[in-house]
Amino acid sequence: MNPTAPDSDVQVGAGRAKRIAMTLVKFAIPAAILAFLLWKITPEQWEQLTSQPKNYPLLAAALLVALAAMSLSFVRWCVLVRCQGIPLSMLEAFRLGAIGYLFSFVSAGSVGGDLFKAIFLARRSPGKRVEAVASVVVDRGSGLYGLVLIVCVALLVTAPHAEGEDAERLQSIGRISTGLLLVGSVVLAGLVLGGKPIDRMLKWLESLPGVGAVVARVAEPLRSFHAHPWGFLLSLVMSVGVQSMMAISMYLICRGMYSAEANPPTLVEHFVIVPVGMLASAIPIAPGGMGVLEAIIDWMYRVVPLVPTQASGTVVALVFEIVKIAMAVLGVLFYWTAGREIKRSLEAAEQEALAAEQASENDGEPAAE
């Protein structure tokens, strides 16, 4: 008999219990945030949400536009994956993208959608692990670039109705966004459009001790977009399209919830309000940006419109969150019908996330004397 077997069984059982508990927590966090947001709604806002007439065709159109935006983001990722020389059908991109969206929505960390997609591609294409990760990173960067671009243009061409500290905050957002846009443009131009001088600089960086190995592993996949500049440019155009459709979706929600008598913000004003809210909610401090988006949209509804509005930014953003939850249902359907290969990738992503968390915990523990 093996005297260590009971201890091993206990460890396996404890690990399984921990994974189950973490899964329950990841699904409970969005539910708790949603409940908190519902609790924060004032009686007047509840009155607006429940009793006032609603334009259901406009609300349905908002859902369709948001679905179109999500679908376009899946197409963008598929294009970037193919630029890395990794075969991926459009159907697979939609299936993986929907499942990834589901896991990003229910988790502020651990098994995010990006990690799952990268691991699946790496398992599918042995020897292209770095390329798989690069496709996901560049996809996220492309989306962020399109978002920052819209924020900069919107704040440049419009004059939000803000005074005092609100005006200073908007100006700070504009300056930060402009800085991010400039830095991103320089980096992207260098990696994608740069020629032999960029290659020589990367070769020099690869020879440096410490960082050389990292540069060698990361630079080559990113530089592969140099051979596909039009594919990369197309991804940026699609990113602008994705973020624009999100702004249109929230505008349709607002018009579906409020009549013209409430002076809802215009479509142009929503191109200022929504991108700023989406940029703030991109910070990974809450699952799917829930809570952050509502706070920013509510503030923007007060400071951006030239004509004061009776529409509640909190109510509109909450309905938008419900739209996002409805889109996440597609990920549930794809997950239920997923094949063995996808489920194995999910298990591998979970194991990598747990290993990273354990390593982080171990680093924080005091060393044994």
Automatic annotation (TrEMBL):
<feature type="transmembrane region" description="Helical">
    <location>
        <begin position="266"/>
        <end position="293"/>
    </location>
</feature>
<feature type="transmembrane region" description="Helical">
    <location>
        <begin position="20"/>
        <end position="39"/>
    </location>
</feature>
<feature type="transmembrane region" description="Helical">
    <location>
        <begin position="230"/>
        <end position="254"/>
    </location>
</feature>
<feature type="transmembrane region" description="Helical">
    <location>
        <begin position="313"/>
        <end position="336"/>
    </location>
</feature>
<feature type="transmembrane region" description="Helical">
    <location>
        <begin position="99"/>
        <end position="122"/>
    </location>
</feature>
<keyword id="KW-0812">Transmembrane</keyword>
<feature type="transmembrane region" description="Helical">
    <location>
        <begin position="142"/>
        <end position="161"/>
    </location>
</feature>
<dbReference type="InterPro" id="IPR022791">
    <property type="entry name" value="L-PG_synthase/AglD"/>
</dbReference>
<keyword id="KW-0472">Membrane</keyword>
<feature type="transmembrane region" description="Helical">
    <location>
        <begin position="173"/>
        <end position="194"/>
    </location>
</feature>
<protein>
    <recommendedName>
        <fullName>Flippase-like domain-containing protein</fullName>
    </recommendedName>
</protein>
<dbReference type="GO" id="GO:0005886">
    <property type="term" value="C:plasma membrane"/>
</dbReference>
<keyword id="KW-1003">Cell membrane</keyword>
<dbReference type="Pfam" id="PF03706">
    <property type="entry name" value="LPG_synthase_TM"/>
</dbReference>
<keyword id="KW-1133">Transmembrane helix</keyword>
<feature type="transmembrane region" description="Helical">
    <location>
        <begin position="59"/>
        <end position="79"/>
    </location>
</feature>
